[in-house]
Amino acid sequence: MKGSDAHYLLLVDDDDERVQRLNAYLGNRYEIVRFRNVKSAEEWFENCMPTSVITVDSTNTKDLIKLVRGNAFYQFTPILLAQPAGTSDKHALPYVGIADVVDVNETAHTLQSKIRYYMDVSTHLQLAHRHAETLEQYKFRLPWWKRGIDMLVAFTALLILSPVLLVVAALIVLDSKGPIFYRSYRAGTNFHVFGMLKFRTMKVKADQQLKDLASSNIYAKNKISSSEKESLMQISSFLCSACREKGVACQRLLIDQHQPICEKLYLRENEEAAKFMKFRNDPRITRLGKFLRNSSIDELPQLVNILVGDMSLVGNRPLPLYEAEKLTTNDSAERFAGPAGLTGLWQIKKRAKGQGPMSDRERTDLDIEYARTFSFKTDLYIIWRTFFSLWQKENV
């Protein structure tokens, strides 16, 4: 293991006998570097020399922890306190920053196993850290000009529209029981989850009716009639065709919503399920809610989300978590690599013109197109077109 890919074990220890013992047990497996005290090791740490594990004696522990933990390069390097057998605090970790205590009088096998364990831990932590740094480089960051416009417009709009917001809030209270605002947890830019605000347009506990309305989803690929649904429900133990042909009980049984279902059936249904959920003549919507939705007034509280930085004025709509989890494949996840917005491309296309339902693939493609090509000019165009699209032609 010696050479450029060697695992370095650094000893900061003034005890020659202890160092010799560690060398005898570990020298044939690892590159061992020894310093008598922290002062003599300073240059090693300043130059950020590769180090997998550090052992230190009790005399140098405090100074070493201060030196190592103050260096970001070594934040994931395990530090082991080397102590002889019989020490009273052998099984304690007397200092914050110490990973474990090493008894140098243990058998060679025990000592080697412990050091090898922390070598592996160090390697995995460093790889995970490098991977996280790589992902951080590819995270979308909102341009300064876009964030500046968002803050200015959102703050101004909230001031001007405050009387309207108060009137709408009062009407919601008079129209139906429940809170004025609805907080929907959504996945936005970089899959960041936040509570998106809307005026409540539905009856209380409306989310619990989603499963019953699945067949009315305008994005659904295959509509299932009530008779077909009933016959499916009557299949014994929810068996797939392969299980029924063999005449045996399902060998790949899952429990979904407290009901047994064959794993094969579950995966097939999940693949065929629509990515987005939206319904015509939704029975969950209140009387006032229909007007608020068609006029897009229910979206106005999202100006607060824009002001605090969860969203932008223009971007891809933040998705409910049950929709976002279906768009994590390579050909869909790119939609999250752009701004999350109040309005966007798909809102000014077929949806606003009443040209029939837009497929989930069309909507995802428009989101990806915006994430790749958005600009100041594009945003101005979308905002301009949005003013002519505020009143929806679809009753959804």
What does this structure look like?
The protein contains 14 helices and twelve strands. The chain has helices spanning 16-26, 38-46, 61-69, 108-137, 144-175, 226-233, 241-246, 263-272, 287-294, 302-308, 321-324, 350-353, 360-373, 376-387, and strands at residues 8-12, 31-35, 53-56, 79-83, 100-103, 181-187, 193-199, 253-256, 259-262, 312-314, 319-320, 341-343. It has 396 residues and is an alpha/beta fold. The N and C termini lie far apart (65 Å). The radius of gyration is 31 Å and the shape is elongated. The strands form four sheets. A five-stranded parallel sheet has the order 2-1-3-4-5, with helices on both faces. The protein has two domains: 8-137, 3-Layer(aba) Sandwich (Rossmann fold), CATH 3.40.50; 144-205 and 285-387, no CATH class. Helix 5 packs antiparallel against helix 10 (302-308). The longest helix has 32 residues, at 144-175.
What is the first-to-last residue Cα distance?
A: 65 Å
Computed Rg: 31 Å
Give the helix tally. 14
Structural class: alpha/beta
Gross morphology: elongated
Proportion of residues in helical segments: 40-55%
Helix and strand succession? Answer: EHEHEHEEHHEEHHEEHHHEEHEHHH
Strand order of the largest sheet: 2-1-3-4-5
Query: Residue ranges: pLDDT <50 for 5 or more in a row?
Result: 228-238
Could you report the average pLDDT, rounded to the nearest whole number?
Answer: 77
- β-strand percent reads 5-15%
Biggest sheet descriptor: 5 strands, parallel
Number of domains: 2
What is the number of beta strands? 12
